[in-house]
């Protein structure tokens, strides 16, 4: 009887070699009789655990990623470092101090919120040459679960040398500085407010500077899609593996063939498959790795290898092959002791059984130690999914939805599950499709979306990794392609560490160009792959952008940190040099879209994605070199969002923010997450519809503010997001003229100081490329 060991595990696990014990591989007494039935090795993946980790900064974070540490979506910057959830083995846990990292204390909250004190006295700042300039950026007010919060961002030109204090009627808090890669970004704070909404805040500096600003509302009451009469939602009642996801996608097309089509993407995945493997030996110098040449499900799993001590003195090393059975007859000396080394066994196997297997020493070791006899051992691909899960390359498909699928309407592309373990994300994509098709006859807004938007949905862009996550290793992030060399970690004990991070495999801001946040290590969870666009999954997304030139909007759905972000997404840590920042027009448009999307999310259970978690991903999260968003924005002009769903929730009983449940939350939480974030996707479709229907260019006015010193401060205010091109020399403005820019990161438009009478002429170009007629205004300086 052949025993096939299945190692289905839903605990979080990874591969490690320390302390490996392989059944049946200890030194054997001489036994020339062959075993009747070969068995598979017991090679369980060691347990992992998710822990909250303090990391001293971005450089340490990227060094840890290169070393194989796996950081999850719950991420928070502190003034002196980073708090982040990490998926670690015991060995990695013990190695934290080597990076200056440590397990966070039990009392460390999931989201640090300042606790206000009594309001500070508001004195007059000293009027000295040493006083710093304090510039207030965002001042956002929001409520969730009955609790009010202020989120404030402010800069001092003294950088982090200034100690800043936020005050409002009712309280005050210190504002910590936000430092990233040794660069001062700004001061920021999130504080609860146990009272009415303030209308104004003030910020004072220890160096004498001060400033005031009005409070603005973050998110707004909206007629969310789920609130419309008769609107159907909540179509999914449990987690789905990628096969089930695509079966459901196909069924939606069969049920609604008049408004949908299936788009077969040109590149199939590598497949939920692996070579069959075994590892013999007890020390690195005596270990022999053996891989099948055929995939496990195509015959590799049927091959057995035995290392036999013949029990005869002075015998020669020999290999015999009988069908799928490979027997290595080990050489002995005059006393009958085995003398064959690992290197010699490898050479003999490759010479005599090289049509079936490939043998190698352990991770480049010379293999000079004598091997031990081992019983007949079946090679195994160690894959546990049931037979109905295909091992063949997987055909990825998009569901195209709309009445006019001819390129005449603005297009929206939604992809999910680039990262395998993010199991809620394909449900978000599916739910959005289900809502459109279920409500087409009973909801006027849905009918308008179908008439005016061309939608493409790829619900699982990493089906191979997704299947591995479901049936083998729930910590799996990447796809399953093994690029590790035989001299590296290509042996069976590293099988949980293989694969490419698909969201590090694109062409803009790549690790190959010097950007941080991706690894060249084939066992890192941020491994970028052997080259840009090496993976079929990434090639498919680029193909969609190349093929459908009407695509204007994009969302890639991830979990589980509760962020919504865009460009810049990557930076070079030395000097913190980011990929190009979007112009003020696009940055403003992103913020407007974000508020609409997140207001719709809020409708289900009052979830608020905090403003500090919204913006350029390298500004609010970390650097992610080679991400898909930047490829689509910079190469195709597509407004490209990334979404980390499933963030923290305010708990009124404890007065703290609770975790969103991680990558695979318990179903009651997952059920709420996929529904609320699908509402945000629906809002994206409405944004695309408004974009398509906009036929009027922006109108822009010049605002002047006279200063005490006689100068005039000039700003521009467009009626909608637009690039403003202006001249001051009397020439006619064109799109090559100077452009009105943002004052700084996460700030509105710059202030132009005028000290002599000047005539401004300008045009504006909105996000559709519609151009305003030339305007003119003379700023007179007295």
Automatic annotation (TrEMBL):
A Pfam family per the record: Peptidase_M14
Family from the record: Belongs to the peptidase M14 family.
Signal sequence interval, chain numbering: 1-29
Protein's UniProt name: Chitobiase/beta-hexosaminidase C-terminal domain-containing protein
SMART domains per record: Zn_pept
Keyword terms, alphabetized: Hydrolase, Metal-binding, Metalloprotease, Protease, Signal, Zinc
Organism the protein comes from: Jiangella alkaliphila
Keyword Protein biosynthesis: no
Gene Ontology CC terms: extracellular space
GO MF assignments: metallocarboxypeptidase activity; zinc ion binding
Record bears the keyword tRNA processing: no
Names of required cofactors: Zn(2+)
Domain of life: Bacteria
Gene Ontology biological process terms, A to Z: proteolysis
Segments forming domain Peptidase M14: 356-681
InterPro entries, per database record: CARBOXYPEPT_ZN_1, GH29D-like_dom, Peptidase_M14
Catalytic center residues: 644 (proton donor/acceptor)
